[in-house]
Amino acid sequence: MERTLVALWFADIGGYSAHAAEDESGALRRVQVLQELASETVPQFRGRIVKFVGDAVLAQFPSAELAVRAAITLSNGYIQRSEAIGRIEHLRIGVHLADVAVAADGDLYGDGVNTAARIQEAAEPGQVVISQDVWRQLRRRREFRFEHLGDRSLKGIGSMNLYVATMESVATSVSKPREMDNLRSQAQMTAIRSLAVLPFADLSAERDQEHFGDGVAEEILNALAKIGDLRVPARTSCFAFRGLSLDARDIGRRLGVEALLEGSVRKAGQRLRITVQLIDSRNGYQLWSERFDREVADIFAIQDEIASSVVTALGLSVDQREKRHLVKTSTADVEAYEFYLRGRKLFQKWTRENIILAREMFERAVALDQNFAAAWAGLATAHVHLHGCDSEAHLEKAREASTRALRLDPQSAEAHVAAAQGLSMEQRYADAAAEFERALELDPTLFDAHYYYARSCFKSGDLEKSLSLFRQAQSVRPDDYQAVYLEALVLMQLRGWNESREAYQRALEAGRKHLDLQPDDARAYVLGAGAFARLGETEHAKEWAERAMSLAPDDDAILYNAGCALAVVGEEERALDALQRAIRAGLAGGDWIPQDPDWERLRGHQRFQTLLQQLRSS
Prior knowledge:
This protein has 618 residues and is an alpha+beta fold. 56% of the residues lie in helices and 16% in strands.
């Protein structure tokens, strides 16, 4: 390894371990702030970040002067950044000058690195402490001030003279509390009408509670989405930021929202700690935070309290209808609720295998609590989506489960949608419409009610109603890419190419935005392939169709839609191959295909007719 003489420093957050025990989410946010600020500051002084280690950062510089200037700038900047998100915090920084070995990946090794780490440990929060070697380089510089700490014993290193370094030219004071209060007040007074709920971090010891954290966040998201004055992006968009170390302002820009709700969950036995904070993503200020230490059995009360607190913090008014739709208790059995959450997380992966597993979770939930309406509704929906994949009577079981859900909770919009989907699959379109209408009456903000009702109307041939419902679905969830694509499909049938062209372009734009966040989503690729096909971009259409089928080679819906795109661009045999594979995988769309304009040029093809007859008789 190459050896070189460098100035280097370690910086960490003073008292981080104690803060993490008290406020996990806040502590993680402060680490993020340190990393962001270090990434901004170090290059300004011709330095290089070597690595981040937990709440610490190691950086190297070409001179002692640049290293100390960067350290003092970072220290003062962190005070102000930390106060802006809720509480003043201080860094401890140790600076040293040493001969080190540089590995191929840029990491640094040697006693000099260890010495810098031990000097940092000797610093008090807020101090930049330097070794005597660094002091000798800077002692005659007028802009620096030094306080001699004397001879200190450093673990594993020995005794060393240390100094605290400050600079007259760098402001050492931070904004006055009153000024910060004014800034926060201004942030809150500026109307916030859009909010993203990010996935809650799992801080449990075994890191096995991601489904629980997701469930908590999603319940809150669903509750807030029902508030008329608030726009909340869909779960798929919000949860795409899981595990990414991005600034709140960057996430806000990418999601097009003015505020973020983030949090963490720590579950140990029957004890639960949930920490949440509301952040103004326009400037990074924290607007509200809270920690809940409760029993797991209190989970519904906690979720409702969080949702209500957010509404209050944003200054939103909530009418009586909306109040009824905030988080409500669905079961008294916590174990049943956990199985329900596991099932919901599995279902959202949208593969046949995961829907089968989700069904098992819902079955275990209702076995523990026969009165758990939401779990019965989930079970009904799982059976609907499994229809056609085997010889099991899924539609009959879906009907039984949805009937049970509605008997337990007639006001459940989700249960009415589950019932309607089963009826639509049975081609009982009038009965399905009645259930969909009831769902929309109970919850006009429920995307699935608009979306699946629109699909049902398309299958039944009521294209004008289908078009209206797909557009309503987009108004409920503007970031969705599926409804706009199907709007274009309906427009093609109703009004021809000129009317549908713009919708296909919007569908492609929405799909690309979705893929930026979910790059392995086969459905986004396959619907995008259809849009490319209609827009005449043949090579892109074929490329995206193949990409979709490679991501989900056994998914009947993916294979079917890939066949649609290939049919439009004239790849007839490949299209029919995809349709045949879809039927073998369990496709149950005999009432959809006759309405689908993508197959227009193949209507008279003998193989197509044979496959269609096979589908109808299955």
